[in-house]
Amino acid sequence: MNIIQKPSSHYTKGRHNPIDTIIVHYISAINTRPEDPYNVKYLLNFLRKPIPNGNKKPIRVSAHYLIGRDGTTYACVDESNTAWHAGLSHMPDGRSYNRSVNDFSIGIELAGGKWEEFEEVQYLSLAELINDIKRRNPKITVKNVLGHCDVAPGRKIDPGKHFDWIYLYQHIRDVKSELTLTESMRALSKALVITSKAKKEISSGMVCPENDITSGEVVDEQKTQETANINTPDVTIPKKEVIEKEEPKVSQQPKKENCVVRNVVRIAKMCRFRRKK
Ligand SMILES: [Zn+2]
User: Fold this and answer.
1) 133 occurs within a structural domain
2) CA of 218 to the centre of ligand 1 (A)
3) Domain total in the chain
4) What residues make up the domain containing 41?
5) How far apart are CA 48 and CA 196, in angstroms?
6) What is the mean pLDDT of the chain?
7) C-alpha angle 139/140/145, rounded to 5°?
8) Catalytic amino acids?
9) Which of 1, 54, 161, 245 has its CA 20 to 30 A from that of 270?
10) Residue 190: is its pLDDT beyond 70?
């Protein structure tokens, strides 16, 4: 596939664990460039240049890849190095390295936001890229192709409610062989013990809602970067948003459930999709 190289210096050299995970994000310049939020030049700047952060140390983030609205793919960090894309995060089973999944994951940013659908060409480029990455990193299975919200529940919402996981799965190679019916059933049985609140969310289809954003996101990231040299890119950085995020203090527990629920729903939908075929 055709990938445009746009190297970033924002990474930690090497890996401590084998790469077995892909994290999907969204990124936009909606707060600084509302008239042209997906301008690739500005999005690449986020991933390649320090982002001013008031009186504090500038924020430095990155991702391995960026996919523009027209489906063009840009590579910023070599897969052999650790990009700063997920910040404080852990796998659904709790696994992390230095309080983050960055060490064993590849981060892919899609130009987009919580307010609108992604372009079909973006899904096609993303699927092609994922298939390519999976070929080079055979430890990555489709179960470990996750959203940022799945590894930073309560703190991150991307790739957001408009991201169509089912459509993506339809274009990823080996989905059927990697996700057995037993695994799907296990995930479904897990769903039976979740709280009534979460059940209600399944029935209403309201999972991982946008109000998942909580306070202190940017502060958190900064702290994380200083201590562990890891960071996250979907900083649309915006003073406005920082203020917004300081308001609601929502408890963490139900949100974790939301993401578990969403994964279950995702898998359940896939089973349905497979049966139809
Ligand atoms: Zn993200």
Assistant:
1) yes
2) 12
3) 1
4) 3-178+214-238
5) 44
6) 77
7) 160
8) 109
9) 1
10) no
